[in-house]
Amino acid sequence: MMIWTGNLVSSIGSGMTAFAVAVYVYQSTGSATWVSIATLLAYLPTILLSPVGGILADRYDRRLMMICGDSLSVIGLLVIFFSIQAGNTGILPVLLGVTVSSIFVSLLGPAYKATVTDLLSEEQYAKANGMIQISGASRYLISPFIAGIILSFADIRIILLLDMATVFITVLVVAYVRKNIQTVKKRTDKFNFFREFKEGMRSITANKGVSSLVILMAFMCFFVAFIQTLMAPMILAFADAKTLGFMESVSAVGMLVGSVIIGIFNIKNNFPKVLTVSLMAAGVFMAMTGTTTNIWLIVVFCFLFFTALPFINTCADVLIRKRIPNELQGRAWGMISVLTQVGYVAAYAVCGLLADYLFVPMLMEDGILAGSVGQWIGTGEGRGIGFMLIITGMVMFGMAFIFGTNKSITEMRGTANEVGAN
């Protein structure tokens, strides 16, 4: 619970920075492409370096890895802060700062994932994942609301200082926990990066169900990245940053609701079925967010979209976690992070370009789709992005149906030990 509390505080701080960076970049450039590039640089190093973080988490103290990752990520925040403080209003220091922070965050993710397996029993996995997603939801629920208010009377520097303060609190909490709980015994054999990398990959490929789930979650990450990246430019086309922060916070209550339901009632069986239904529902609600410029309707559809996400994440997490031995958990989650979040990277790399140079021009007042699709969803700034979300949601629904009926997923049963025995 203490580690979870520390992660909650850290998540709020990093969510505020992510929101402020998106607003800062968009207001500086007026380009969805630069927003997607900034988002890509904030995630790509973490994704690519996750296998390294996973290998270190299996060999060394996982709580120590969390402390190092969180505290060193402050370097990137300092780069952005001092650059703006010195009067540099360009976005290059911002891009450099988010990249540096992302490099060190790669030490945090796999260690945090594996710590759950260290401390809890299998019966507690689903509830714990619900709790973890509550802290994750805070970056959408609490962070945008606070950041939106702050940006109405101050600038990004205040938010960067607050984020650094939350990191300090989190590091102290995790250090206290590390001091007062027994450390899991670590490997003493000679370190061989490539051997341990192969062991982590083999833990995923050895089970067809796990492999299929990883592919499915990669597609899900690709689709979710569209709404994460493009929601801000779509809303800012007809509203201000304060309205955007309010909208994101209220709509993200859905993630909190879904996480609380899981945390209270638990999911004890039918994980594959719940996963498929939740993915299909998320696709429908994503598509609906692009059909209107009514902020309240967008809030409702986003609320429902975010409500489905905790069920998707929990089901996939538990199905995978129960089939991988604890001594491989760090490496496995590091590999899974790379393989699934390739979807994020691909989406971040193309969605801004698609928005600026293809979809937005098609739905301007004189665009080629203004007389057809534009009659249904409207024309002007942001409407091309809305059309992108409609298409993305529909494809997400189709992929959920295709993979959800895959036998390797629908028949997933047993724990890691049972699978090994078979």
Automatic annotation (TrEMBL):
<keyword id="KW-0472">Membrane</keyword>
<dbReference type="Pfam" id="PF07690">
    <property type="entry name" value="MFS_1"/>
</dbReference>
<feature type="transmembrane region" description="Helical">
    <location>
        <begin position="32"/>
        <end position="57"/>
    </location>
</feature>
<feature type="transmembrane region" description="Helical">
    <location>
        <begin position="274"/>
        <end position="290"/>
    </location>
</feature>
<dbReference type="InterPro" id="IPR011701">
    <property type="entry name" value="MFS"/>
</dbReference>
<dbReference type="InterPro" id="IPR020846">
    <property type="entry name" value="MFS_dom"/>
</dbReference>
<keyword id="KW-1133">Transmembrane helix</keyword>
<feature type="transmembrane region" description="Helical">
    <location>
        <begin position="385"/>
        <end position="403"/>
    </location>
</feature>
<feature type="transmembrane region" description="Helical">
    <location>
        <begin position="90"/>
        <end position="109"/>
    </location>
</feature>
<feature type="transmembrane region" description="Helical">
    <location>
        <begin position="210"/>
        <end position="238"/>
    </location>
</feature>
<feature type="transmembrane region" description="Helical">
    <location>
        <begin position="296"/>
        <end position="320"/>
    </location>
</feature>
<feature type="domain" description="Major facilitator superfamily (MFS) profile">
    <location>
        <begin position="1"/>
        <end position="410"/>
    </location>
</feature>
<feature type="transmembrane region" description="Helical">
    <location>
        <begin position="158"/>
        <end position="177"/>
    </location>
</feature>
<dbReference type="InterPro" id="IPR036259">
    <property type="entry name" value="MFS_trans_sf"/>
</dbReference>
<keyword id="KW-1003">Cell membrane</keyword>
<feature type="transmembrane region" description="Helical">
    <location>
        <begin position="332"/>
        <end position="355"/>
    </location>
</feature>
<feature type="transmembrane region" description="Helical">
    <location>
        <begin position="64"/>
        <end position="84"/>
    </location>
</feature>
<keyword id="KW-0812">Transmembrane</keyword>
<protein>
    <submittedName>
        <fullName>MFS transporter</fullName>
    </submittedName>
</protein>
<feature type="transmembrane region" description="Helical">
    <location>
        <begin position="130"/>
        <end position="152"/>
    </location>
</feature>
<feature type="transmembrane region" description="Helical">
    <location>
        <begin position="244"/>
        <end position="267"/>
    </location>
</feature>
<feature type="transmembrane region" description="Helical">
    <location>
        <begin position="7"/>
        <end position="26"/>
    </location>
</feature>
<keyword id="KW-0813">Transport</keyword>
